[in-house]
Specification:
With 946 residues, the chain is α/β, with parallel strands linked by helices. The protein is built from 33 helices and 24 strands. It has an eight-stranded mixed β-sheet with strand order 4-3-5-2-6-7-1-8, sandwiched between helices. The chain has a seven-stranded mixed β-sheet with strand order 10-9-17-14-11-13-12. Strands 21-20-19-18-22 form a five-stranded antiparallel β-sheet. α5 crosses α6, α9 (246-259) packs antiparallel against α21 (649-660) and α16 packs across α17. The longest helix is centred in the C-terminal third of the chain and has 50 residues, at 705-754. The radius of gyration is 32 Å and the shape is globular. The protein starts with a helix and ends with a helix.
Length: 946
Amino acid sequence: MSTQLRRFADTLSFPLDDFQRDACAALEDDRGVLVCAPTGAGKTVVGEFAVFLALARGGKCFYTTPIKALSNQKYHDLLDVHGAEHVGLLTGDNSINSSAPVVVMTTEVLRNMIYANSPALTGLSFVVMDEVHFLADRFRGAVWEEVILGLDPDVAVVSLSATVSNAEEFGDWITTVRGDTEVIVDEHRPVPLHQHMLVGSRMFELFDPRESGRGDSGGGRRQVNPELTRYIKQRALAEPDSGDDPVGRYRGRVDRRRRGGSGLPRPKLIRLLDDDGLLPAIDFIFSRKGCETAFTQCLRSDLNLLEPDEVALVDEIVQRHLADLAPGDAAVLGVDDWWAGLRRGFAAHHAGMLPMFRQAVEELFVRGLTRIVFATETLALGINMPARSVVLERLVKYNGEAHVDLTPGEYTQLTGRAGRRGIDVEGHAVVLWSPEVIPDRVAGLAGARTFPLRSSFAPEYNMVLNLIDRLGVDGSRDLLRRSFAQFQTDRTLVGQARQLDHARRRLRGLDQELVALAEKAGLDPGIALDGPDPDAPTDRYAGLLGYLTLREDIRRCEREVRFARRVEEESAVADDLAALKRGQVIAVSVRRHRGLAVVVDPAQQRNDPRPLVLVDDGWTTRVGADDFVNPPEVLGHLRIPRDMDTRTGRGRHRLAQALQASGIARPVGRAGKRTKEKGVDPELAALRAALRAHPLHAAAGAKGKARGGVDELLRLGERRNRQLRDVESLERSITERKSRLEEDFDVVTAVLRELGYLESGGRGGLRVTPTGDVLRRIYAETDLLVAECIRAGIWHGLSAPELAAVVSAMVYQSRRDAYGGGVDAMPGNPKLRDALTATLEVWAATNEVQARHSGGSETLTTREPDTGFCGPVSAWAHGRSLQEALTAAAAGGNLLSPGDFVRWNRQVIDLLEQIRSSVGPDDPLAAVARRAAKSLRRGVVAADLD
């Protein structure tokens, strides 16, 4: 061990693992590293050594994270070790000591610095990219590739990733684009994870305890505990079966939701976990409402997990976190109940809470003063909150529109929080049993080990302008070719090219064999080995291969006829689905849910209608044409009250009860497919006539030796044609895969040229215009639309609150089941409504240009502005209270939690600051944007920013 590594190791409270030691040694040798290890294994130690090494050498280190909360947490961790003079923080919300030798930042901040050629990059020696597997994120993943490709070659990149199955491939790419990189994969969990199922009040091992390798790291597929399986069967036999009674099934499900996934009251569940020594724990509940409900249940009980001296510490920490809270906001935010729960050792944690509330919960949990946290899955996205145990109440989550199953990757990420290194001997994952939870499926989730990392890199408007400005057109294309997306494509292409070469050789061999056998039999093979004769008449169906082609054309035509009839039938289903109105009742059979269903939200698109329905057992999902054998029949109508909120469990429960009590008859038995008689297709009839007239048809139908010889030729010809199809398929695949990234690049550049952001000249024939310089500095999903609105001048002359409102439409996205009311329903003055109307007109014109060049590709068009946040942000910018702003949101059809209100305000502030810096200090819009951002940066929105 070197001197520097020994000095660093002496500062730790635990010995370095082999993978940590190997990675640190590679950094000392000035090599980059990619470290892939499970959650909780200690990957961040490698990043912390990079910080230590940079300071020891007098260099600089940037530590990047995917989310602001993790950046804030890492900043405080490094601050405690290295002191305030050496550590800074840069996020979209905050800037502290940004000139320090060590700066923690979000990955987007570093990307923006690279494009701006920031002087802060001078002297940079290390960049730590924590959670680099975010590269696969479909919305933000490209940022990680932009950073890896854009950093100076002398900077050593420290990439920290969760365990992925293609780590070597990812490491090979980083080595290709960054130079010497050590790939270190460690799948060993330092704290073994044990899988359990809780059935009622009995805890079982998920896997058979008689098998060897009783932890989470055993190899091979493990068997489910037979005792668990027997007990569930006995329990099912002992309990009354509701059968086809939807009321009984729904009541059972609602009762389990209220009590917890297993039907066990949550206070009793927590006491059971406490008795088994499984606290502290994180109970993952896949809804904010569910987390709050669980918290309220515990609050109403006599559950108390803390001692008096611990309560005093809780009060001290909570008071510190609430120091910036305005007195008038306490009642709106429910501070008293939240604090009362913390004083008894339990809390909720979700994105709808204020950041100061979440941070208080996180600190209390890490310090052991909160024993149980009811959390949504967002807690598993990087925040360092390890627990002894993780509880999963369900394996299905509601994604805002429909219920979807948990994936193996999500299960691994959630349960990876169990087991605190240096504290726990083992971690525990507890799944609560219910009739919908099958042990074999849980075992499949727990045993899955394949999570490949796939690039999401794609050219976008802001990215392309920045690349062309820095590298020129040719340099930009070269960077695209060096992306991980192209690397993965090229690796596939290498294999496909090899397959194509083999396939072509096999095809030539079959051609030679076929010609020889046909000539021996005195038949025309229908092919010439030296290529077709240009002077010979072309007859598609001549010879043996022509006869086979004719037979294949008949089969193709038959498939097309069947397909056309199926499309006609599906079109009838789609038409009826599109015509369904809110409140109409139909019969459905979707997955395990069969019975009556009421339309909650009619279909929005006629080409693929998918109305949102609620089944009589309370299940909510969208149904499409593939869910019906016959067109849906309207069985009746159910009046849905206007004030019924079907987004909530209570609202869905009320509607399900009303449907059950409606008296509408449920369909009996399974509906058979209704078919109509169709005439013979003319093309198919002509092909069949040509087949009967073909010279080989009679020989093919002959008997004896003659038939045997023809059969052998036909079989060989069919083999040859199958081989030809393989060759053609490989050729198409290679052509398509080669060009995707560059085709998207060409589309983006064409749009930018037409709109005047690029012009002829410069390197590679294109250069960025002054208008393009504005777009280069806008880093938002709606970047092109923002730049177009600035250029059109439609936001000039607005007041600060009006500008904040119209800019909010660029960032805000309503829940799918919420409705913002549109421009006409907007409160406020006509000037704001006119600006919003003009913005929508610019959006429509811009989208027309984008769609024309991209062929309608959604990835290269801009989403429609959303006015749902205009009311509340305008109220807040005018100095109204938090209560008044939230009331304005509710009046507009958007129920906002305080946490969401803060989050959207901060995104509006971020975009306002980008607009201010992009237009230049002399532009009047810059002054208004500055005032607008300042008007929003107050109260709960400004807490934790200074």
